[in-house]
Amino acid sequence: MAGSDAASPAPTAPDTVKILVAGGFGVGKTTLVGSVSEIAPLRTEEPLTTAGLGVDDLAGVEEKRATTVALDFGRITMGRDLVLYLFGTPGQQRFWFM
Ligand SMILES: Nc1nc2c(ncn2[C@@H]2O[C@H](COP(=O)(O)OP(=O)(O)O)[C@@H](O)[C@H]2O)c(=O)[nH]1
Ligand SMILES: [Mg+2]
């Protein structure tokens, strides 16, 4: 029977789920996506500058040196049938439209 084989059905694409990681500035969104992703995460970090003084609250994250300006992206494969796509947002109110 040409074109099919009951013992090895044609492979199907895995289901995909998009997970949005949202939250305030410095809560750990970028760290989370980068920690659990199986691929090198896409990052859009830019250095914090004096323009953020009094705007971006560094209380509790005094060592933070950069901030996400567009998105984080990572991927987790859950077996053969499911792939998770992780999207991290910027945290500041000025980026809430995203
Ligand atoms: N104590 C602690 N610090 C963390 C944890 N995750 C991230 N951090 C730190 O908290 C800050 C969070 O930064 P980042 O991941 O850029 O936060 P984002 O603004 O939410 O993306 C960084 O300085 C991290 O080193 C955590 O699970 N525990
Ligand atoms: Mg971030």
Automatic annotation (TrEMBL):
CDD domains noted in UniProt: Ras_like_GTPase
Superkingdom: Bacteria
Keyword Nucleotide-binding annotated: yes
Keywords from the UniProt entry: GTP-binding, Hydrolase, Nucleotide-binding
Keyword Cell inner membrane found: no
Listed Pfam families: ATP_bind_1
Transmembrane segments: none
InterPro entries in the cross-refs: Gliding_Motility_GTPase, Gpn, P-loop_NTPase
Similarity comment text for this entry: Belongs to the GPN-loop GTPase family.
Protein name per its UniProtKB record: ATP-binding protein
Biological source species: Streptomyces glaucus
